[in-house]
Fold these 4 entries.
Entry 1:
Amino acid sequence: MRFLSRNLIGHLRNHAAKSVAATGSVRYQQTATKLASGRPLIANEPAGPAIVTKTIPGPESNRKLQELSQIAETGSVQLFVDYERSLGNYLVDVDGNTLLDVYTQISSLPLGYSHPDLLRLLDDPNHVKAFINRPALGAFPGTDWTDRLQNSLMAVAPPGLRNLCTMSCGSCSNENAFKAIYIWYRTKERGGDTSFTAEELETCMHNQTPGSPPYTILSFSGAFHGRTMGCLSATRSKAIHKIDIPALDWPMANFPQYKYPLEEYVHENQQEDAKCLEETEDLIHKYNAAGKPVAAIVVEPIQAEGGDNHASPEFFQGLQQISKRTGAAFLIDEVQTGGGPTGKMWCHEHFNLPEAPDIVTFSKKMLTGGYYFKEEFKPPQGYRIYNTWMGDPSKVIMLEEVVRVIQRDRLLENVNESGDVLMKGLTTLQNQYPQHINSTRGRGTFIAFDGTNGAKRDTIVNKLKLQGIHSGGCGDKSVRLRPALIFQPHHANIFLNKLETVLSNL
Amino acid sequence: MRFLSRNLIGHLRNHAAKSVAATGSVRYQQTATKLASGRPLIANEPAGPAIVTKTIPGPESNRKLQELSQIAETGSVQLFVDYERSLGNYLVDVDGNTLLDVYTQISSLPLGYSHPDLLRLLDDPNHVKAFINRPALGAFPGTDWTDRLQNSLMAVAPPGLRNLCTMSCGSCSNENAFKAIYIWYRTKERGGDTSFTAEELETCMHNQTPGSPPYTILSFSGAFHGRTMGCLSATRSKAIHKIDIPALDWPMANFPQYKYPLEEYVHENQQEDAKCLEETEDLIHKYNAAGKPVAAIVVEPIQAEGGDNHASPEFFQGLQQISKRTGAAFLIDEVQTGGGPTGKMWCHEHFNLPEAPDIVTFSKKMLTGGYYFKEEFKPPQGYRIYNTWMGDPSKVIMLEEVVRVIQRDRLLENVNESGDVLMKGLTTLQNQYPQHINSTRGRGTFIAFDGTNGAKRDTIVNKLKLQGIHSGGCGDKSVRLRPALIFQPHHANIFLNKLETVLSNL
C-alpha cells in the first residue's frame, strides 16, 4: 500500500497559481467570462453586491430577531433573508443588502436562489399536487416514484451502487445507514440466517443483548455526522455540539493532519497516513475484543464542519482495505460533499477506490436525504428501515430538475473552472498576505482557507459581509466557500477582489 | 390522587350507542349529512368507493412493485397510488380502484388529498419561491418566518406553551426534545450555571462523563417514539422495529392495561393506574441511584403503533406529579395524536393537567416536525439544538392554510360529530359480531377496534380493502382508523356499511 497523496498533490497542483505574481495587487476580471455554457447561467442576476446598511445584520434583521426570540431559541440566527428577491448567487437580506453568497444555506442550494427551471416546475398542476399530497413513501408510493428516482438519484448514483433509500435529512440518513449496517453485520454473524431466536426477540424489547447487540461505529477526530443520538456519538467536531448529551462508547481514530505544501512533505505525510490507518485497525481489534464489535467505519471525504480537513486517496483506499480485513462496513458520508461541489458528483470518486464504498449517505445539495447501498445491505425484512414519510417526493421532483440542469448546463465543468479561478486567486492572496491567511485547499469550489487564528478568521468573515460577500466559518479558524454549482468564474473574481480589499485593509 | 378514569368513561359513554339495537342488520345513511359546515366539505369527491380489480394490490401495483424492488427495499410497500387522481377522503390507486381512506398516509394528511385551498397556495409566485428556496432556518430565516410561525404553529399551540422549535420529522423532533431536556437537566444540576468546566469540554469529545452524562429517558411498554437511535431506545412497540439495533439501558415502565367496560371495572382500573405509577416512580429512583439519572418521562397520550392503548386522565396527571417530585421532565409525544384527530388540537387537552407538559412533540398532521417547550427548556447557548434545515418553510406555509381551514370549516366539530357516528356504529357492530371484533375505543375519529386475534384482524383489513376501505393495523390485533379531519358523518356511514358487509360474510 502506498500512502503518498499523489492524487491530492496533483489536484492541488492543478489549482496552484504558479504563474501569478506572489506580490502586488491583483485585480480580477469581474465581467461574465466565457463558460461551458457560453453565457451567464442566470439571467438578470445582480451585477455585483450592493450594501446599503452600515452593519450587517442591519436594523430590520435585528428587529426581526427580537421578534423571533420571543418564541424560539435564536442564538445561531445570523441574518433574515428576503428569499423572494434573492436570485442566483445573490442573497438579498431584509434590509435590502445584496450579497454574493458563497455559503448558500450551509452548502444546500445546488442551483442558487429562484432558479427559473425550478420555479417553472410548479407551473405543472400535477407537480403542485405532488407537493401537496405527501405520501408515506415506504407503504404507498406514487405512480411515477420509481421513474422519479431513476431520473434523479439513480441517474447520478456513485459508480457501483445500485440501491437506495430516501430519508428526510442528513442525520436521519446516517442514523438509518447505521441501522442497515447493524442488520447486515448481525446477519453475517448468524451465517446468513435471517430468522431470530426467541431470546433475541424478547431481549431487544428490553434494550438488552443479544437482541440489542452492543455494536459500535468508528469515526475520526474532527468528524461531523449529524446531531441525533447515533450520529452525535460519531460526531467529534466541537464541544458545543456534544456537551451535556449522552453518548456511546464508540471508537475515535485520528484523522490525518498533513504538513503543507504537500510536495515538500511527501514522506512525513505518508507516515501520517500510515499512523492513522494503523490506529484505526488497532482500535477496531481492541473494540471487537472488548465485546463492542465495530460494525462500520464512517468517514467524510473532506471533513467540512471540522475545518475542511483533507486526506489522501491512499488513506481512503487504506480504510477500505481495513474494512475488508475486519468485517466492518465502509460508509462514506457525502452529506456536505455530494452533489457536485468538488467537481465530481461524489467526492469519493476522486479517490480511485478499487470498488464502491458499501454505503454513501447524502442530503443538502441533493435536496432529499438518503443513502445508496450495496445489495447485501438491503434488510431481509420490511419495516426495519422505515418511518412515516421516508423522504418527500417534492424534493425528488426538484432534484430531477436539478440533475437535468447540471447536465444541460455542464455545471460540473463550471465548478472545476470556477474552482481553478478561486484556487489560483486564493493562492496568490495567501502569498501576498501571509500575515492574515494561509492553507488554501480544496476540490472544485469546495474550498477553504485559514485565518492566522480564530479571531482573524471571524474578522475576515465579518468584513467580507460588509463588502457584500456572504461566507461561512468552519473548524477553529477556517473560512469555507460553499457556492452553488452556478457560481461562475466572474463570481469568483468578484469574491477575490472583495477579499483582497478586506485583506489589504486589515 | 384519584385514579378513576371518570373522563375516559364519560368520553366513551358519549360515544356509546346505547339506543342502537345490538342485533340485526343496521344500514347507515350514506348521503351527505348536515354538518358544522352545512355541506360536503370537498366538492366533487367520489360518491363512494369503486373497486375494479379482483385483488388489491392489483396488477399495475404489482408491476410497479417489481420495478421499485430492483433499487429499493420494498417489504413494507402495500400499494402504488395515483396521487393526481386522489381527492378528499378518497385514494385512487394505480389500477384505478377508488378507496375511502381511513388511514391517510399513516395519519399524516390533515385535509385529505388535493384540498383545493392547499392547491391554491401555489398560485402565489412568492409561495412558489418559498417552496424552491429552502433556507437553513436556524441561521438565515426568511422575511415572514415569525409571522408564519405565529399564524400556524403558535395559533394552535398547547395551552401554556409559548416556545417552539421546528424539525423535519417525528424522530428528529423527539431526538431534539430529548437533547433540550438533557441540557435543561444538566443546567439544573449545575445550579443554573450555564458555563462548562475544562473537564466537561474535554471529556464530551470522547463521549465520556462528565461531558457526556449517562442520562436516561423513561418510556412505557408498547410505546412508539421513532426509530433513530435515541428514539428507538425509548420505543417498545414490536421486536421487528428494534432487533439487531444497539440500544441503551433505559427504564421501561408498564403502561396501564384496563379491563373493559370501564364502568364495570372502576376499582380494578384504579389499581392498575396506581400500580403503573408506583412502578414508574420506583424505576426513576432505581435508575437515579444507579448513576443513570432519568432526565425525562416520555409518553404518548394514546399509544398508537403499540395498539391504540388508552390510559386515564388521572394516570397522566399522576405522571406529571411524579415528574415534579423526581425532577424529570414530562414530555408528551403527540406525533400521531396532535393536530385534531382526537377532537381537540392536542390529545393531552383531554387530561385536565393542572399545568402544561414541559415539552410536546409533533409531526404528521402538523406537516412539519418540531416541539413546543416551556421557556426553561430554551438552551442557554446557540448551536446546541441545530441542524442544516431545522424544518422547512414550505410545510409551515401549508400548515398556516390548514389551520385556517380547520377554523373556517370548524373541523374539530366535524371530527367529534364523525367520531360519534363511528363509535356508535362500531359499538353496535361489536355487539352484533362479538365472534369477530371487540374493544372499540377512541377519542374523536382516533378510533380502533380489535379483531379477536391477529389473523382475524388481517382478514378484516384485507377484506375491507376489497370493499373499497383503506384502513391500517396497529398492535397485535387492532384495526386503527386515522381519517383526515375532513372525514364527515356520511363517510363514517359508508365505512360502517362496508365493515358490516365484511363481518357478516366472515
Note: Chain A has two domains: 31-118+410-504, 135-391.
Entry 2:
Amino acid sequence: MDTSLIAGVCRLFHTYVALGESWPMTKERAYFEAITLKEHGHLCPAHVPEVYHFDRAMSLIGMRYLEPPHIILRKGLIAGIEYPLLAEHISEYMARTLSSHHFFTVQPRSTKRAVAEFCGNVELCRLTEQVVFSDPYKVSQYNHWTSPYLDGDAEAVREDNTLKLEVAELKSMFCERAQALIHGDLHTGSVMVTHDSTQVIDPEFAFYGPMGYDVGAFVGNLILAFFAQDGHADPQNDRKAYKDWILRTIDETWNLFHKKFTALWDKHKDGSGEAYLPEIYNNPQLQLLVKQKYMKDLFHDTLGFGAAKMIRRIVGVAHVEDFESITDAGYRADCERRALDFAKMLLKERRKFQGIADVISAIQKVHT
Amino acid sequence: MDTSLIAGVCRLFHTYVALGESWPMTKERAYFEAITLKEHGHLCPAHVPEVYHFDRAMSLIGMRYLEPPHIILRKGLIAGIEYPLLAEHISEYMARTLSSHHFFTVQPRSTKRAVAEFCGNVELCRLTEQVVFSDPYKVSQYNHWTSPYLDGDAEAVREDNTLKLEVAELKSMFCERAQALIHGDLHTGSVMVTHDSTQVIDPEFAFYGPMGYDVGAFVGNLILAFFAQDGHADPQNDRKAYKDWILRTIDETWNLFHKKFTALWDKHKDGSGEAYLPEIYNNPQLQLLVKQKYMKDLFHDTLGFGAAKMIRRIVGVAHVEDFESITDAGYRADCERRALDFAKMLLKERRKFQGIADVISAIQKVHT
C-alpha cells in the first residue's frame, strides 16, 4: 500500500488507563489491541480501522485516521443524532467477529493457541472483573454515585442477595468461558460514527470470553442512553422521537445480529468447524432446535451482561457522559434511578424474556 | 529423598494411545501428565503417586511404583471386591484437586497462565471431543457395539434429536469452560486400589475444563459397573449385595464430594480467592444460596457428562471391560441396553434430578 496516500494516526499507550493514576496497567495491552484490530479487521474490514504499523517496544499503533465528521457514538447519542445504519453496521461487526471464532468455523487447534495467547491479557480481564462484577456490589473506595439522591439505591444494590447471586454466575462465565475473541469493552464510547460509517475502536480489553459480554455491552449502553434522554430534553426538543429511535435501534441490533449470526452458521455448517458436524446435526428440525437453544442462551447472556454493565455505570467507578452531562443532580439521579431499577430487574429476571421485543416493552412500561 | 529406598517405576510414552495405531498422538502428553501428577499430588498427596523424575525429551516419567495388591479399580469392580474407603478417598481427591483451581482459592493471574499452558494439550482434548461428544452420535468407522443385538439401539442414538441437542451443550462446555485443572479421563481404569489405598493415575488428558467432567466420569463408570454386574453373577454369587455396595458408593462419592468441596470453600472464603469476595457474599443466607446454586449446577453437569461417558462406552470406539468380559453376547447386550437407556434418560432429564438419591432410585427402578 502507498502510505503517502493514507491519513494515519498514532495511538500511543501510556501506563494508565482511563480510570487514572490509581490504575497503572501494563503497556502490553497495546499488543492485544493491535492483534485484535488486525483479526477483527480481517473479519469485518468495513467497521474496523486498518492497522498500518505496530511497534511493540514503543506500545504504538499506527492506524487509520477516522476523519471528521466521525465522532464517538456516545456523544452523538447525547446530541440526539440519529444514525440510520448503526444497527445494520454494528450487528454486522458482532456477527462476523463473534461467529468466526465459534467452533463451527474455526478449528479447535488454532483456537486453543489463540486462547492461550490472550490469557496474557490478564490485567485488563482482572480490571473488568473488579469494576463490573465486584466493586458495585460492595463498599469500595472507587465507587461513587449521584449523592445523596442515590445513597439508598447504591446501598440497596450492595444488599440485594438475589442480584449478587446472579452476578456471581455472570462473573464465573466471564472468567471461565472462552467462547470467542471478544472486544471486551464494546460500549458506545468504543464506536465512532458518521451518518453512514460505523467504526469499532479500542479493543484493548480483548480476550477469549463470552459472546454475550460484547452484545450486552452495546445493548446495555443504548439502554443507558435511552434513560438519559429526558435529561437532555429542552423546549425545542422533548427527545420523544429520539427515544423511539433508540428503542428501534436496540430492537434492530439484536434482530439483525441474530439473523446474520445464524446465516453465517448456516453458511459454514458444512465447513471446517467441529462443534456442529453435519453428520450429527443432519436434519432441518434438529438444526433449528440447536440454533434456537444456542441463540436463546446467548440472548439471556446478553441481557445479563448488559444489565451488569448498566449497574456499574451508575454506582461503580466509571460513569458515562450520557448521565454525567445532566447538570441538575436531582434530575440526573431520577434518570439514573430508572435505569438502575430496570437493570436490576433485567439481570435478575433475564431468563423470562423471550425476545428483544419483550425488553423494549419493559423499557416503555418503566418509562411511562 | 534417598532414592535407594524407593520402589519406582518408569512410564514411557509411545506415539500411540490406548486406541491403537489409528490414533497417533504427540508424546507431549507425557509433559501434561507429569505436571498434572505433580500439581494434583501437591494438592492431594495421599491419592496421587509421587513423581520422582520427568524427562521431557525421553517422554519418560519416573514415579512411585504402586505395589501389589494395588489393582486397577475396574478389575476389582468386575471381580466383585468391595473397597470400603473408595468413596472417602476419591471424594477427597476430587474436592482437593477441583476446588484448588476454583477462583476462591487461586488468583486469576496464575490461573490464566496455567490455562494458557494447558491449551497446549489440544490433541488429547480433540480426541475426547471426537470419541465422547461426536462419534457415538454419527456413523463412524470407529464405532462398534454388540451386534446385531444393539444395532437398533445404536441407530436410535444417532437419530435422537433431543439427545444430540443436549450433547451439543455438553460439548460446548467441555471446549469452552476453563473451570479447573481436571484429570480429563477419571474413569475406573484410571484408579488403582487396595482395601485401604486409592491412587489416581494417567492424567494425560488433563486440561482446564469443566469440573463435572471428572466427577461425571467416575460416577458414570460406577453406574456402568453396576449394570454389568448381572453379567458377572454366578450360582455362588448373585452379586445383589455387591450391586447395593456400588449404589452406596455412588451415593457416598457425591455426598462426600459435596461436603468436602463446600467445606474447602468455607475454609478459603476469606482467603486470596476473588470469585466470592467476603465483602460481597457477606451474610450467611447469601453464602448458602451461592453454594446451593453452584453445587446444583455442578451436580447437573456431573450427570450430563457422566451419561455421555456411559453412552460412548457402549456405542463408541472404546468399550469397557465391565461389559466386554461378559462372554454371552446376548446377555452382554441386555446389560448394555439397560445402561444405555438409563444414560440417555439421565443426559436428557438431568436437570430434573434434585440429588444423588434420586439417581440411585432411578437406577433401582430401571433394574427391577
Note: The domain at 69-367 of chain B is CATH 3.90.1200.10 (Aminoglycoside 3'-phosphotransferase; Chain: A, domain 2).
Entry 3:
Amino acid sequence: MLSSTLRTPVPRLARPLLARQYSSSAPTIGFIGLGQMGYNMATHLCTKSQSPFVDTVAKFQDENANATAASSPADLADKASVIVTVLPESAHVRSVYLGNNGVRDGLRKNTLCIDSSTIDTSVSIDVSRQLIGLGARAVDAPISGGIMGAKAGTLTFMVGSENAQDYDAAKVYLERMGKNVVRCGDLGAGQAAKICNNLLLAISMVGTAEALNLGVRLGLDPSVLAGIINTSSGRCWSSDTSNPVPDVLPNAPSTNGYNGGFKSKLMLKDLGLVANAAKDSKTPLMLGGLVESIYRHLSNQGDMAEKDFSVVYKWLAESQK
Amino acid sequence: MLSSTLRTPVPRLARPLLARQYSSSAPTIGFIGLGQMGYNMATHLCTKSQSPFVDTVAKFQDENANATAASSPADLADKASVIVTVLPESAHVRSVYLGNNGVRDGLRKNTLCIDSSTIDTSVSIDVSRQLIGLGARAVDAPISGGIMGAKAGTLTFMVGSENAQDYDAAKVYLERMGKNVVRCGDLGAGQAAKICNNLLLAISMVGTAEALNLGVRLGLDPSVLAGIINTSSGRCWSSDTSNPVPDVLPNAPSTNGYNGGFKSKLMLKDLGLVANAAKDSKTPLMLGGLVESIYRHLSNQGDMAEKDFSVVYKWLAESQK
Amino acid sequence: MLSSTLRTPVPRLARPLLARQYSSSAPTIGFIGLGQMGYNMATHLCTKSQSPFVDTVAKFQDENANATAASSPADLADKASVIVTVLPESAHVRSVYLGNNGVRDGLRKNTLCIDSSTIDTSVSIDVSRQLIGLGARAVDAPISGGIMGAKAGTLTFMVGSENAQDYDAAKVYLERMGKNVVRCGDLGAGQAAKICNNLLLAISMVGTAEALNLGVRLGLDPSVLAGIINTSSGRCWSSDTSNPVPDVLPNAPSTNGYNGGFKSKLMLKDLGLVANAAKDSKTPLMLGGLVESIYRHLSNQGDMAEKDFSVVYKWLAESQK
Amino acid sequence: MLSSTLRTPVPRLARPLLARQYSSSAPTIGFIGLGQMGYNMATHLCTKSQSPFVDTVAKFQDENANATAASSPADLADKASVIVTVLPESAHVRSVYLGNNGVRDGLRKNTLCIDSSTIDTSVSIDVSRQLIGLGARAVDAPISGGIMGAKAGTLTFMVGSENAQDYDAAKVYLERMGKNVVRCGDLGAGQAAKICNNLLLAISMVGTAEALNLGVRLGLDPSVLAGIINTSSGRCWSSDTSNPVPDVLPNAPSTNGYNGGFKSKLMLKDLGLVANAAKDSKTPLMLGGLVESIYRHLSNQGDMAEKDFSVVYKWLAESQK
C-alpha cells in the first residue's frame, strides 16, 4: 500500500473517497520539516495513519492523497491536533513554534506537539514549557537510526515528557515511524539521552580507530584484531557493527569510501550540543572535549565533513607516511 | 579432581603411584610465576596434564602430587620440555629467560617456551627470537580474563607465533588453562592484540563514565540511560557488562565498592605498554594519551589505584560538589 | 582629591558649586555595572572627568559629588551622551542595552556606548550593530588587569570599533580608568583579542604547573627550575610573574594560599567564551578544549573555583600521595 | 682565531710549535659525538683550550692542529682526563661509556666525564653512578640553544652533579662552548631541567598557535594580536621570540618556511623523554600527553617532522578549508 502510493501518486479525484474512510474522530496530523529524514518519516506517518494530514510541501501532497497544504506553521497549527517537527537546529525549533506566524499563533487547546529534532536540551525544555503554558501538550522525541531507518520505518525514538499520558499519546504516532520508542524521563530527557549516547558513540569510534590503527602499525591484520576485540572487553558498536577500517565489514560505510552512515559534520553538531549541556550542568568532560576538537579538525580537511564519522580512522592512519 | 586436590594435599607417599600413570612420552612441564594468576593457571595445567610438573613453589608441590621442585629457571629448563611463564613486567621476563641462571642456561633443544606475561611487544619479540636462536620454540600468549577466569579455567589467550606448528603445540597446554585460544599473528602479535584491546577498553570505560555522568547531571536515571545506550550505537562492554555507575548492574565491581575486577594500577601499566608501542611504531594516539593521563592522575588519589578501573566514574562524578 | 572625596562624602549642598565648574560643553557620562570592577572604574572616571555623571547606585552618588541618580538604563541613556557598561555576561549586556526600559529606549543620537564587559564576541558585535543602527556609536572595550588594576587605574583596554574616530572618542574616557588602551580592529575585535589572550594564558598556566610539578617529582627545587625556565624558551607570564608553586614568588597568589588574582571560575567563564567563538568560527582547539575540561573538573573540587587559577598546580600535585 | 682556524686548516708542520705552547699541566680533552652540534662545540673547546685534544674524526683533526686521533672510546679514555660526549639517544650514551671497547675500558682515575646529550634522566643517572663507581667523576650537562648557539658559542648548559666541585670542574670547559652554565641539582638534574623546560616550551608553542589561529579566524591581524599578547598575561617565548605565524616576526623560522630552528622530530623526541620521566615518577601530565600526541600526528604529515616545531600552527590552520 505504502510502496504503491509512493510509486504512483493517487489521482486528485480519488481524494473524496479516501477522505470518507476517516473515522469522524480521526485527528488531523501536521508535519513540519520534510527534509531527508522528515520526508520519509512523514510518508510512513501519513500512509499508516489514514487520517487528515497537513504539511507545507506540494510534492508530498501530490504523493499522499490525504495530505493537504498549510500556508504556515500557524495555519498548520490551526488545522491539526497533533504536530510533528523534525528541524535542524535549536533556532529553527524556537522560531517554528514561537516565532511570527509560528505554531503558537494557531495553536489549539490540547494539541500534542512532538518535536523530533536533536537540539539543545535547555531550548527543548524551554519551548515545551511555553507550549504547555499555552494549553498544549509537548514531548521531545529525538531520533536514532538515520535515513536508512527513516525509510525502513525502524527508527528509535527517545522521549521526554511531563507525564506518562503524554508519552502514551505520542507513542501511537511514533510507532508508525519507528519500531523502538522509549521514555527517558521528564521534558528534555529525550534530548539528554540522545546526546549522551552520541557522546559515547563518538568516543568509541575514535577509540576504535586508534586501537585498530595501532594494531595495523604493529603488524596485525585489522580483521583478525577486530575479531578478537569483538569477543573481548573492547567490543563496541563501532568495532562490531560499523568498523572504521575499510574491508573489515562488508556493509560498513568505511568499506564504501566512508559514504552513507552518519556524517562527521552531524556528529560534530551533536558534540556541540554535548558541550552546551556540559557547560550548563557544570559537568567535566575529558574525552568528550578532545573528541569534539578532533571532529572540528577533520571536518576542515578535504571532504571529511561529508563522510561517515568513522572517517576519523583515515584522519589518523593517512598521516602514516 | 582439581578441587579435591586443592582441598586435601596428596600425601607424599602417593607420588610414586601417580608417577607411574605417566605415559613414557609425557613431556615435563615447567611453570615460572605462581602469583595470583599463575598459581591458578598452574593448578589447572598440572592437574589436567597428569605429566611431570616442575616449579619453584613448595606450597604448590605440597598441593599437587606430580609437581616437583626446581632450584632455578636454569634447573627448571634443564628438566622441562615445555615452559610456561606468567611474570609482571618486561624486565622479569628478560631476566628469567636470559639472565644469570636463567632458562637459557638450562635450555634444551626444541623446548616450547610459552610466555603469558603482558609486556612490551618489542621485548617479547626480542626474547622469543633469542630463544629460537638457541634452538628452542617460543610463543607469546598474554591472557585476558582476570583472576576469576584463571580460577575457573576460562581464560582467553592471544597468541603470537613464528608458525602454525608452534601455535598448535602451545594450544594443547593453553586449552588446559583457558577456553579461548586465538592466533593473532607472528611473534609479538599476542602482545599487540592484548594492548590494542585494552587501549579501546580504557577509552570505552572513561567514555562510558563521561556519558553516564553527563546524563545523571542532566537528570536522567543512570539505569534508564544505560538501558538505552545498551540497545543503541553507544553500547560497549563497559556499559552493558561492567557499568561504572554503582547499582546499574548488580554484579559489576562498581556496585561492590569498585572492588574485584581489573585494578586501575594494572590498566595504567597496560596503557604504559600502549604508549611504548605507539612511540616505537610512530603511531599517533589522541584519546589513548589522555586516558593514560587520567589513570595516572586518579591512581594518585586515595586508594583509586587499587580499585577496579571503572572507578574513573567516581573520579569524574565525585567532583560534583 | 579622589581619596578625600572617598573618605568624606561631599555634603549635598556643595553640589551646585561643583556643578558650576563644568564647562557648558562637558558631556554627561552614564555608568552601568558598579560591581567590584565597575565601582573602582567609575570612581576614577567620575572624579577625573569633573563632568555630570549618572548612575544607579546611591552609595556612589553619596561618595561622588557630581554623580546623580538614574532610575533605569533608559533614564540614564536619556541623560547621558557617553555610556560605559561593565556587566557579567552576554545576557546582561543584551538586556541592559536592548531589553525593556533598556538603553535603547532612551538613547540619544551619537551617544557613545562603551561596553567593557567580557562577553561572547558574536553578541558584542550584534548589540553594537543594533545600537549603531539606532544612530548611536558603539565600541567593545574589555578589560585586562583585574580589581587591583581597577583600583590603581592601571587597566588595559582592548578596543574594537567601526572606525578610528569612535576609538579616539572612547580612548579619552578609557584613559581615565586605565593606562593602556589599544585598538584591536573592528567591532568585536576587543572581545576576540581578550579571549585569545586568556586562552593562551590558561594553557600556559596549566603547562607551567605540569612542568614544575614534573620537576619537583624528579627532585628539582621549584625555585631553581623556575629560574632556569624564566631565562629559557619556556619562559612565560605564568612562570615569571604568577608562578603557581607556593613560595617561588613572594607576591604570587600561590604564595598567598591561591587567594587574590584571577579566580578559576572566571577563567572557566572565559574559556566558555573561547569555546563558543571556536564553535562559531569552526576553529579547532586541542589544548583549549582540554584546559576547559580541567578547569571544569577542578572548579567542582572543594573551594578551587574561588581560588586563583594557578591553583591548577595544587589540583595536579596534591594528587601525589 | 677560531674563524681563521676554520677557514684554513693549520698545516701539519705547525703542530709541534702549537704543541709546545701547552702548559705541562694542561689536561688532555677527549670528545665523542661530532655531529652538527658536537662538531661546532668541539671546535670552540679545542681552540679555546689550547691543550691536547683527542677525538675520532679525521676531518676535525685536519682542521684543528692540537687534535689527534683515538681509535675507540676506550682508547680515547686512556688518553684523556676530561671527556665530553654529545650523543643522540640513551642507548648511544650507554654503549659509548659502558659498552664493549667503551670509555669504561680505558677509564683513568678521576677522569671528568661530561655528558651533554639529552637522554632519559634515569639512564643518565645510572651511567653517571657507574662511572663514579669506577673512580671517575661524572656530570650531566644537556644543552639549550641549538646549532646556531653551538656555532656562536652561546649555548646554555643545565648541569647535574654529585657535588659543587664536579660542577666547578666541568664549568671551566662548558664556558668555552657556551655563555650560560647553571647547576640544577644532583646527578640527572640537568636532564630533568632540560625536559621540564621543553615540555613547557612545547605546550606554549601549541597554545600560541591555537590562540593566534583562533584570533585570525575571528578576523584579527595576527601581528596586532601578537603585539597585545606580548604585553599581556599570555606573553611567552613562543609568541614574542619565535612566533608561529609567518611574517609576524621577520627572523622567526615560521617566516622562513618553518626552516631553521628546532625540528618537530626533535621536539617529539624530547616529549618522549618527558613521557618516560613522567611514567617513572608517576607524575600525571594532561597537556603534556596531548602535545606529544599532536607532534606524533604532525610528524607523519608530509615534511612537518623536518620543520621547526612552530609548524604546529600550519597543522592547525591549514585545515581551515
Note: The mean pLDDT of chain A is 91.
Entry 4:
Amino acid sequence: MYTDRFGTLVQKLRLLPSVGSKSAQRMALHLLMRQRTGALELAQALQEAIEHIHECSICHSLTEHEICDICQDTERDDGLLCVVESPADVFAIEQSGSFKGKYHVLHGHLSPLDGIGPEEVGIPYLVQRLSQGQIREVILATNATVEGQATAHYLVESCKHLPIKITRIAQGVPQGGELEYVDSHTLHQALTHRLPLNQSS
Amino acid sequence: MYTDRFGTLVQKLRLLPSVGSKSAQRMALHLLMRQRTGALELAQALQEAIEHIHECSICHSLTEHEICDICQDTERDDGLLCVVESPADVFAIEQSGSFKGKYHVLHGHLSPLDGIGPEEVGIPYLVQRLSQGQIREVILATNATVEGQATAHYLVESCKHLPIKITRIAQGVPQGGELEYVDSHTLHQALTHRLPLNQSS
Ligand SMILES: [Zn+2]
Ligand SMILES: [Zn+2]
C-alpha cells in the first residue's frame, strides 16, 4: 500500500528514539505534505552533522574540531574534572551554569550483563588522564541510577592510588533520575553540595 | 555550547510533528552516538522520498508514479469513491481491508478562519471528477471533527445537482476522533453501516 520509498522513509524514521511505526508514518506524511523543503534541510543537516561532528580527542564529548571548545577554554579550571555518562549530560550541566571546570565523557555506564565493562566505558583512559597530575578533584556526575552508582563506585576503586579528591554530585538529584532531564536549579544544588567519597578529601 | 551543526540538526529535527527541543536534542545525540550509519540512511531516505513521491494526478494521494496503484487497479470498483482529508486516511482505510472502491484525497478540511475555503481544499476538482458520470456513490470519510463534518455538509450541497448517492461513514467512529487513529475494526463498522445523506440514495 505504501510506495517503496515511503516505506523506506517510515522505516528509517523509526531509528529515532521513541518513534514507533504510527509516529514514523505521521512524520513521513507531515514532511511530504507540509514540510518538503524542511525535509531536504533535515537531510542536509543529518549529513553535515555525521560528517563533521565527532568525539573530542580529550574529553570525548562531541565537537566539530579536534578538541572541543570547553577543553580549549583557558578560563576554565583545569584542576576540576566532571565525569559524566554522555554528551547530553555536559549540555545539561552547562545549561545550569554551575560548573567552570572541565569534563570527561564516559561511553555510558558499566553494564556487565550486556558485556559493557570498564574498557568499553573508557575507564582506563580516564584513569590515565587523571594520572597526569593536573587534576586535583574529580566530580563523579554519572546518573543517579543503579548503573550510574555502580560506575561511580568502580571509579572510586580505580582511583584509590591517585592523590585526587573524589566527590559525587548528591543533593537534589532524584533517585533513579537521568541527569539530562534534571532541571538547572537541582543540578546547581547537586554540584554545590557535592559530598566527598574517599579519604584524601 | 552546541556546535553549529549540532544546533542546526536539533532545529531541523523540530520540524517533525510533536518534537520539542528536548526530544530533538535527544534524537540528535542518539543518531550521533549510536546510529551514525542510520542517520545517513535517514538523510538518503528523506531526499529520495521528496524527489520521487508526489500527488497522484487523479486522486491526490501520494505515489511515485503519475497515477497511483489504487487508481490504476482495474479490480477495484470505479463507481464507488471514498473522499478523505489526507493520504494517512487512505492508509488507515486500506489497512482495515473494508473498501474496494477508489479514493479522492482532499487537501484537509474547510477552515474559513484560516482562509482555507473550497478552492484550497480542492472541492471544485472533486465536483468535476464526480460530474464525469462514472461514479454512482460517494462515501464521505472526512474526519468526525467539527471541520470534517462541515466539509462533508458542504460537499453534500456541492453535489446536489448530480445523480449520485452520497453516504457518510458513521457507526463506530468516535466523536472528535481523527480517522488515521481509528482501529481497523471500527473503520470496518463505519464503512459497513454508512448512512445515506441525500434523497437520491
Ligand atoms: Zn573536549
Ligand atoms: Zn490515485
Note: The first strand of chain B starts at residue 54 and ends at 55.
